[in-house]
């Protein structure tokens, strides 16, 4: 089943852009093609490049929005989620809660 989903969606989770596209589908209730186009526009790449691991690895490192393997000094966890929320213009619950705590 996972192979079927990978082939059908071609978005590969955090290896490429699947996590970003999934967020748009869930939060903005977008269909897959619409979510892919939105994310591609925000990242400044084509929809086809969203599923290219090499291109997305370099872009994720450049934007510091998290990569599959740990890199010294690179954003992880909440730090990456804050950048993702800003980049996509969405609200992420844990980021919102963190911001509320920092204001107290």
Throw out a few tags for this protein:
104 residues; mainly alpha; 62% helix; globular
Topology:
Elements: H1 2-9, H2 18-27, H3 32-43, H4 53-63, H5 77-88, H6 93-103
Helix pairs in contact: 2-3
Please explain how this structure is put together.
The chain has 104 residues and is mainly alpha-helical. The chain has one domain (2-103). The protein is 62% helix and 0% strand. The protein has helices at 2-9, 18-27, 32-43, 53-63, 77-88, 93-103. Helix 2 (18-27) crosses helix 3 (32-43). The protein is globular, with a radius of gyration of 14 Å. The termini are far apart. The model has no long low-confidence stretch (mean pLDDT 86).
Average pLDDT level? 86
Order of helices and strands: HHHHHH
Give helix % range.
55-70%
Shape estimate: globular
Q: Hey, roughly how much beta strand do the residues contain?
A: under 5%
Helix/strand structural class: mainly alpha
Count of strand segments = 0
Q: Report the biggest beta sheet as strand number plus sense, adding barrel if it closes.
A: none
Number of domains: 1
Low-confidence stretches: none
Radius of gyration: 14 Å
């Amino acid at each position: 089943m996972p192979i079927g989903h990978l082939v059908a969606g071609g978005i590969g989770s955090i290896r490429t852009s699947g996590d970003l596209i999934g967020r748009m589908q869930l939060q903005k209730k977008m269909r897959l093609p619409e979510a892919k186009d939105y994310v591609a526009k925000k990242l400044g790449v084509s929809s086809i490049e969203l599923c290219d691991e090499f291109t997305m690895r370099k872009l994720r490192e450049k934007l510091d929005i998290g990569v599959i393997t740990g890199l010294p000094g690179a954003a992880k966890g909440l730090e990456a989620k804050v950048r993702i929320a800003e980049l996509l213009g969405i609200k992420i619950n844990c980021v919102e809660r963190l911001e509320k705590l920092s204001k107290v």
